[in-house]
Amino acid sequence: ARPKRRAPAFLALISALALLTLALGQETPIPIEEGQEPFAMEVLVEGLESPWEVTYGPDDWLWVTERQGARITRVNPADGTTAVAVEIDDDVHIGPQHEGVLGMALHPELLQGTGNDFVYVAYTYNVGSAHEIDRRMKIRRYTWDEEAQQLIEPVDILTDLDAWDDH
Length: 167
Prior knowledge:
About 10% of the residues lie in helices and about 35% in strands. It has one helix and eight strands, in the order αββββββββ. It has one helix spanning about 10-25, and strands spanning about 50-55, 60-65, 70-75, 80-85, 100-105, 120-125, 135-145, 150-160. The strands form two sheets. A four-stranded antiparallel beta sheet has the order 1-2-3-4, covered by helices on one side. Strands 5-6-7-8 form a four-stranded antiparallel beta sheet, with no helix packed on it. Strand 3 and strand 4 form a beta hairpin. It is globular.
């Protein structure tokens, strides 16, 4: 049985918007239609390095890739507590634009007791030199270790995909 969510999906969206607002350094006006209840938006967490992908996990935490931080961080939307799930420090290429730790996908059976506790992440890396950058993209799978509360056992699924420094 899938654990019940303690908060509706729109709260995850609001939390994600708050994270992105913090990253962009500007306020995001949220229109209130007639008859809707107004709400207050507050900063949930500070100090994330270029949050990129934000997704609600089955543990009711937000899972966030930090593009320039080269890590995946979990954020408790109830109180803003953070926990680094993994630091990807082996070969991430972090550039000025859209490079670094980018996309992420949580296996649909993550934390369901099926043994499929996988998290997939896409990031850029350099096969060239520091002076002649040759960007590539990699898709890597990690396994969630419940006891350690960490992503472990990295397995490269796809490597050497063409990448660029912009969209």
